[in-house]
Amino acid sequence: MTAHKQPLSVLIVIHTSALDVLLLERAAHPGFWQSVTGSREGDETLNDTARREVLEETGIDTTSGELSDWRMTNTYEIFNEWRHRYAPGVTHNVEHVFSLKLAQRPEIITAPDEHRDWLWLPWQEAAQRCFSWSNRDAILMLPNFPSCA
User: Fold this and answer.
1) What is the mean pLDDT of each run of 10 residues along the chain (149 residues)?
2) Beta strands 92-102 and 66-77: pairing type?
3) Residue 36 is assigned to a structural domain of this protein
């Protein structure tokens, strides 16, 4: 297995039936709020990547809700400060969008090396708070995505 991150990741928008969205604040970048994200490890499926990342970053077991693969991808340029994590010459990442619908707000247990805080916001406010355009756009799609509304 390589020490480099794969340029293949997941974005999981965690929300309630009322469309309250969970956001996490990055530990290394105070003020940078986002949904759960993470890169695929080894040859795991994208569903398995999503399940693992949600559990690692929030303590939530995805079997407690409805995990949906939106079959939607975003390609974006990797920030220069994070390129050292990828193989030489890798400049772009392909992100696969998922959502996790929960009946209620569970207790959140963040990974302190990754996130310093968390909060639940109505979907419109959550979209405005995100630093990532792809995360913002996914949240704005929540009310129109069949398994989310």
Assistant:
1) 86 96 95 96 97 97 96 94 93 97 95 93 97 96 80
2) antiparallel
3) yes
Which runs of E-coded beta strand occur in 27-142? 33-34, 36-39, 66-77, 92-102, 115-122
Other CB atoms within 10 A of residue 97 CB: 23
pLDDT given for residue 1 in this prediction: 47
Q: How many domains does the chain have?
A: 1
Q: Is position 3 within any domain?
A: no
With a threshold of 0.90, does the pTM exceed it?
yes
CA atoms within 13 A on the CB side of 10: 27
pLDDT at 145: 81
Q: What is the CATH number for 53?
A: 3.90.79.10
CA 45/CA 15 separation, integer angstroms: 22
- Assigned domain for 2 exists: no
Please give the residue range of the domain that contains residue 125: 8-144
Whether residue 66 is contained in a domain is answered as yes
